[in-house]
Amino acid sequence: MERKILLSTPHMGDWELEFVKEAFATNWIAPVGPHVDAFETEFCQLVGTSHSAAVSSGTAALHLALRLIGIQAGDEVFCSTLTFIASATPITFLGAKPVFIDSDRISWNLDPELLSTALAQRAKIGKLPKAVLLVHLYGQSADIDPILAACDRYEIPLVEDAAEALGATYKGQNPGTFGRVGIYSFNGNKIITTSGGGMLVSDDSELVSQARFLATQARDPAPHYQHSQIGYNYRLSNVLAGIGRGQLRVLAERVAARRRNFEIYQQTLGDLPGIEFMPEASFGKATRWLTCLTIDPEKFGTDREQVRLALAAQNIETRPVWKPLHLQPVFADCEYIGGKVAEGLFQDGLCLPSGSNLSDADLKRVIQAIKRVNAVKT
Ligand SMILES: *Cc1c(COP(=O)(O)O)cnc(C)c1O
């Protein structure tokens, strides 16, 4: 059996270990510390935001974001349906309820027209949601302007889950920085990683300092331990922030490498019958965090699942596109607004190995394996 090719693996540069050594040398082995401060400052400069708080995960960042915009038990939050479960679980942590919204075809992200219509209908019956949670999937921005305009019309705060979209652009600016608050993830499979970590960003300095406060057990200013609110233990460790500082320095290279993977896949597989790649919408630049394609079984000769299994048999990891959250058993009682776009993408969609550290030989193996499935079936 040949070596396993994974979907997306960590890819360290030259600086990460130096920063980690510095944390050891100075004994800053704690949550908070100079690397955390520097990581936040450098992150702000990189994505173009004024304030950020480094936390232990993207999920934690979203939990804080939703709490800080005032989401409470019984509230409703509109949320993209085509996404990872962690986009929506923080809504439920607060006792609120997600309402899931379908995707458009140009970006695979939340459909602005559908949102606009849904908000107008909800306004009529006096049942507007308390927030809109917009996800930027697979390294591509959603069409933010019309979404933001729809939110502004009813004064609904926009929260952006840009966990998968660091390094992408929307009209020249990184998604995650347009709404009231945005979040990013540095989990092991993301475009850059701290092994685990997340970032909350906002132009509202008070909101971000409240995020830091809640992330460190909500300690009131007093020499003894005094608390008048419930907080969390969500701060990022100084050691991991050191890894993050190193990773920020190579982000542009990582984006370029992932886009190159995509280009090679597209050049070699784009002409196969029934294969279509995730489009790149004209309003931005995608990072191609994962290269995703859809397989039309009629034209290709076999379906997505058979392709996935054939590649798995050759020790190549691929994965179906996210199962829409409105189809998840745990959200069976949640409202869904939309048609069959996300469902279709889930049915036919496949994510290919996309790491920035894939070798040309790895890419070739994946490409040959897919071509072979097609040749056998047609
Ligand atoms: C990874 C991810 C998250 C969660 O981030 P963690 O750091 O793993 O908690 C949230 N939303 C999306 C879309 C993600 O891909």
From TrEMBL:
It holds the Pfam family DegT_DnrJ_EryC1. One of its GO terms (biological process) is polysaccharide biosynthetic process. The keyword Transferase applies. The active site is at K190 (proton acceptor). The modification N6-(pyridoxal phosphate)lysine is found at K190. One of its GO terms (molecular function) is pyridoxal phosphate binding. The keyword Transcription does not apply. Keywords: Aminotransferase, Pyridoxal phosphate, Transferase. Its cofactor is pyridoxal 5'-phosphate. InterPro entries: DegT/StrS_aminotransferase (IPR000653), PyrdxlP-dep_Trfase (IPR015424), PyrdxlP-dep_Trfase_major (IPR015421), PyrdxlP-dep_Trfase_small (IPR015422). Belongs to the DegT/DnrJ/EryC1 family. This is Pyridoxal phosphate-dependent aminotransferase. It comes from Merismopedia glauca CCAP 1448/3.
